[in-house]
Design goal:
Blueprint lengths: L3 H15 L3 H12 L3 H27 L4 H21 L3
Helix pairs in contact: 2-3
Amino acid sequence: MIDPKILFTVFLSVFLAELGDKTQLATFLFASTNKEKLSVFIGSYLALVLSSLMAVLVGGAIGKYFNQSTIKIVCGLGFIAIGIWILINRH
Protein backbone atom coordinates (compact mmCIF):
# COMPACT_ATOMS: atom_id res chain seq x y z
CA MET A 1 0.00 0.00 0.00
CA ILE A 2 1.14 3.57 -0.58
CA ASP A 3 1.91 5.56 2.55
CA PRO A 4 1.07 9.24 1.81
CA LYS A 5 3.49 10.51 4.47
CA ILE A 6 6.43 8.54 3.03
CA LEU A 7 5.38 9.50 -0.51
CA PHE A 8 5.31 13.22 0.33
CA THR A 9 8.56 13.08 2.31
CA VAL A 10 10.44 11.30 -0.49
CA PHE A 11 8.91 13.56 -3.16
CA LEU A 12 9.84 16.73 -1.32
CA SER A 13 13.34 15.52 -0.42
CA VAL A 14 14.20 14.39 -3.96
CA PHE A 15 12.55 17.43 -5.57
CA LEU A 16 14.53 19.85 -3.42
CA ALA A 17 17.77 17.87 -3.86
CA GLU A 18 17.38 17.89 -7.65
CA LEU A 19 16.84 21.65 -7.95
CA GLY A 20 19.92 23.15 -9.56
CA ASP A 21 21.91 19.93 -9.65
CA LYS A 22 23.95 18.76 -12.63
CA THR A 23 21.10 16.62 -13.96
CA GLN A 24 18.70 19.53 -14.03
CA LEU A 25 21.31 21.82 -15.58
CA ALA A 26 22.08 19.25 -18.28
CA THR A 27 18.37 18.93 -19.05
CA PHE A 28 18.14 22.74 -19.14
CA LEU A 29 20.99 22.81 -21.66
CA PHE A 30 19.41 20.13 -23.86
CA ALA A 31 16.07 21.95 -23.79
CA SER A 32 17.69 25.25 -24.70
CA THR A 33 19.46 23.80 -27.74
CA ASN A 34 16.83 21.39 -29.11
CA LYS A 35 13.50 22.12 -30.72
CA GLU A 36 11.99 18.83 -29.60
CA LYS A 37 11.24 19.72 -25.96
CA LEU A 38 9.03 16.65 -25.51
CA SER A 39 11.92 14.36 -26.49
CA VAL A 40 14.18 16.12 -23.97
CA PHE A 41 11.52 15.76 -21.26
CA ILE A 42 10.84 12.09 -21.98
CA GLY A 43 14.56 11.25 -22.12
CA SER A 44 15.19 13.04 -18.83
CA TYR A 45 12.09 11.49 -17.25
CA LEU A 46 13.07 7.95 -18.25
CA ALA A 47 16.63 8.41 -17.00
CA LEU A 48 15.43 9.70 -13.62
CA VAL A 49 12.84 6.92 -13.29
CA LEU A 50 15.43 4.23 -14.10
CA SER A 51 18.02 5.67 -11.71
CA SER A 52 15.35 5.91 -8.99
CA LEU A 53 14.30 2.30 -9.62
CA MET A 54 17.92 1.19 -9.31
CA ALA A 55 18.28 3.15 -6.05
CA VAL A 56 15.13 1.56 -4.60
CA LEU A 57 16.13 -1.97 -5.60
CA VAL A 58 19.74 -1.67 -4.42
CA GLY A 59 18.73 0.23 -1.28
CA GLY A 60 16.12 -2.42 -0.47
CA ALA A 61 18.64 -5.22 -0.93
CA ILE A 62 21.36 -3.49 1.10
CA GLY A 63 18.84 -2.61 3.80
CA LYS A 64 18.37 -6.33 4.46
CA TYR A 65 22.02 -6.74 5.44
CA PHE A 66 22.96 -3.42 7.08
CA ASN A 67 21.16 -1.20 9.57
CA GLN A 68 20.11 2.32 8.64
CA SER A 69 22.78 4.10 10.68
CA THR A 70 25.55 2.16 8.91
CA ILE A 71 24.05 3.04 5.52
CA LYS A 72 23.80 6.73 6.52
CA ILE A 73 27.44 6.77 7.60
CA VAL A 74 28.65 5.11 4.39
CA CYS A 75 26.54 7.46 2.24
CA GLY A 76 27.78 10.48 4.20
CA LEU A 77 31.38 9.41 3.77
CA GLY A 78 30.70 8.88 0.07
CA PHE A 79 29.37 12.45 -0.26
CA ILE A 80 32.40 13.80 1.59
CA ALA A 81 34.77 11.78 -0.64
CA ILE A 82 33.04 13.09 -3.78
CA GLY A 83 33.27 16.66 -2.45
CA ILE A 84 36.97 16.30 -1.73
CA TRP A 85 37.56 14.73 -5.14
CA ILE A 86 35.73 17.63 -6.85
CA LEU A 87 37.77 20.19 -4.89
CA ILE A 88 41.06 18.48 -5.70
CA ASN A 89 40.30 17.94 -9.39
CA ARG A 90 38.75 21.29 -10.25
CA HIS A 91 40.27 23.08 -13.19
